[in-house]
Amino acid sequence: QKEVEQNSGPLSVPEGAIASLNCTYSDRGSQSFFWYRQYSGKSPELIMSIYSNGDQEDGRFTAQLNKASQYVSLLIRDSQPSDSATYLCAVRSVSNMLTFGGGTRLMVKP
Amino acid sequence: SAVISQKPSRDICQRGTSLTIQCQVDSQVTMMFWYRQQPGQSLTLIATANQGSEATYESGFVIDKFPISRPNLTFSTLTVSNMSPEDSSIYLCSFRLRGRGNEQFFGPGTRLTVL
Question: Which three-class secondary structure state does DSSP give residue A72?
Fold first, then answer.
């Protein structure tokens, strides 16, 4: 069983819609959770961090964490074609290392 | 925000040779790491670069193949030794910054092709 799992996609949404990206993790002791955006040919860019249950909002992005269900999600409101990228979920384990999911490819169609 | 320099940005190398990748960060770094991202794959941690001492390698990675140095807080090198086509990948320097907790950032990466 993979430690951090994401649906590889592609997830296709129309411009202006809400994109919902999901991630599950196996280590119940995990304390920190991150979302990265990676454009093709570029390095990952940190876009959201979340540490406690509930929602964390930053502009059009909302990260949601449910530790009981071991589930993290990223919502992108008013999706734009420029949001088309691969989104990586990362979880910090008790070893203090980040474990990455396989990524979800998002396509926002004009 | 930090300014990160990673060199070279890309290279094409012959089988059996070695390549050293450099990473320089202009801010106060607490931890530095090296990752590999193979085509179409996610990120795999190679090792944690420790200042002034031997790096801590993850399972499947060894010092003879991937020697790492970190002579000071903000600079590290990764060498890919005795390369084979299977080493073709993107190699990424990553780091955490003082005052930014466990948030982790990435350099621009080095795209390596081994023929």
Answer: strand
Per the CB < 8 A criterion, the answer to whether A54 and A64 are in contact is yes
Picking from A39, A43, A52 by the largest number of B CB atoms within 10 A of its own CB, the best residue to mutate is A43
Structure tokens at A40: 């093709």
What are the pLDDT tens digits along chain A (110 aa)? 569 999 999 999 999 999 999 999 999 989 999 999 999 999 999 999 999 999 999 999 999 999 999 999 999 999 999 999 999 999 998 888 899 999 999 999 99
Tell me, rounded to whole angstroms, the distance of Cα B89 from its chain centroid: 11
Q: CB-CB: which of B101, B104, B109 is closest to A98? A: B104
Chain A nearest-CA residue for B43: A100
Distance CA A55, CA A72 (A): 10
